[in-house]
Amino acid sequence: MPFPRGFLFGSATAAYQVEGAATEDGRTPSIWDTFCTRPGAIADGSSGETACNHLHRYREDVALMAELGLNAYRFSISWPRVQPGGRGPLHHKGMDFYRRLVDELLERGITPLPTLYHWDLPQELEDDGGWPERATAERFGEYAALVGDALADRVTTFITLNEPWCSAFLGYAAGVHAPGRTEPAVALRAAHHLNLAHLRATEALRTHPGVRVAISLNLHEVRPLTDSHADRDAARRIDNLANRIFTGPLLDGGYPTDLFADTAQLTDWSFVKPEDIPNGPVLDLLGINYYTPTLVSRPRPGDSAVSGEDGHGADAASPWPGTDGLVRFHQPPGERTAMGWTVDAGGLRDLLLRTARSHPGLPLMVTENGAAFDDAPEPDGSIRDSRRTAYLHSHLQAVEQAVAAGADVRGYLAWSLLDNFEWAYGYQKRFGLVRVDYDTQRRTVKDSGHWYAQVARTGTLPPLTPA
Ligand code: FCB
Q1: Which residues of 168-182 are buried (b: 16+ CB within 10 A; e: fewer)?
Q2: Domain of 51?
Q3: Closest Cα to atom 4, ligand 1: which residue?
């Protein structure tokens, strides 16, 4: 089963996770710079201050992509680097980095896929209330206009937001991501203003003819533990809070009314203005980030009243407003990655197919997929990460199956090109196709990277060699 012609095989990174150079050339702090100074927030006490030093080593990193035969690179633009403080004119010195990066990619035939927001809100905007405030969406629209003016002559597809679910619910309800607030009702406001931010950015970017607008959602493949009414109701609640809260307004003409009913004790949703709901398509492509499925039930008598482990930390506050006592999370069976996430490629196939069927005509792209494992370099320095290769193999097969069944999938971007700063886990979790030695910044292509290079070069899946 070959992949379609023109299919993109690439990799993805994000500014704060790889760039470093956090205080160079006038960049101001983002909420992640601030969050990293909070004691206990990051498992190893680290930050993205240096990370992979991609800002200075981007040429070497692009050369590596070319060597691997990758034909797309999804990176993110650091808002406080190109518009320090989140207001005012474009900061050319900051934007020059992205102009050079894009030029370097284009020279090597690699399609640039910039994401405008991968979680690094300028701290000043958080000081003014952050995503729960409508004004932040307006600021984002202005920022998107600046980026569009600077790059639309050489970039055709812009991804507005990365995983707004994480921004809203890990950032403002669970508090395990920046800005570390635990205010469930406020998180729902944040979700709406992220949707509005996408709308504003779309309006700005579409002033450039030929530009295509996308978003990357971490759509959850939600499964009920049993077919009982109660368990299906638990799945419905999570589907609303994880998926439809974004696909509703962006694709389906409005929020699901049962989402309003389920959260009525927290908010009356009066922050949603009728004109905030787009009256035409605001997506030319939907990016899907997938790692693992989500298995839920209604708590049984004797189960603890609060949500069980859902992959975001058992001790943290819940990222699911309004579900206490109504939803329990379960670990799906099967092999787990170093994140504790179950490996389940069927989830990706099902998610792609369901999205393709519910939104016919909407091109899809897997904008993140990959796995962290505890890589142990061999004495000669090579990294025999056969489990990561197997993960990529099974998930690429899932994409093939979805395509064969009719899903219009345009590309697959492995998370990640490089080992990098994995948010609250710091540098302890490695997702890269390429190992980074953080003492020397040396890059070493892992076995999985060599295997993926064969995929990218041939457009087919080479067999797995036994470990
Ligand atoms: C996603 C993020 C990405 C990375 C992967 C592992 O949720 O978008 O930055 O951390 O998870």
Answers
A1: bbbbbbbbbbbbbbb
A2: 8-458
A3: 422
466 in a domain, yes or no? no
> What pLDDT is recorded for position 306?
46
- Other C-beta atoms lying within 10 Å of the C-beta of residue 406: 11
From ligand 1's centre to the CA of 351, what distance in Å? 18
Of all helices (H) and strands (E), which one includes residue 386? helix 386-404
Q: What is the DSSP string of 394-436?
A: HHHHHHHHHHHTT--EEEEEEE-SB----GGGGGG----SEEE
Does 195 reside within a domain?
A: yes
| 171, two tokens | 């950032």
Q: Which atom of ligand 1 is nearest to the CA of 216?
A: 8
- pLDDT value of residue 464: 87
Provide the pLDDT for residue 209.
98
Q: Is 163 a residue of the active site?
A: yes
Does residue 463 form part of some domain? no
For residue 304, what pLDDT is reported? 61
Look up the CATH number of the domain holding residue 302.
3.20.20.80
Within the chain, which residues score under 70 in pLDDT?
Answer: 1, 304-315, 466-467
Rg over alpha carbons for the chain, rounded to the nearest Å, is: 21
Residue 201 belongs to a domain: yes
Q: How many domains in the chain?
A: 1
Could you tell me whether strands 364-369 and 409-415 are parallel, antiparallel, or unpaired per DSSP bridges?
parallel
Residue 311 has a pLDDT of 56
Say what the pLDDT of residue 382 is: 98
Task: Return the pLDDT at 312.
Answer: 57
**Ligand 1: distance of its center to the CA of 425 in Å?**
11
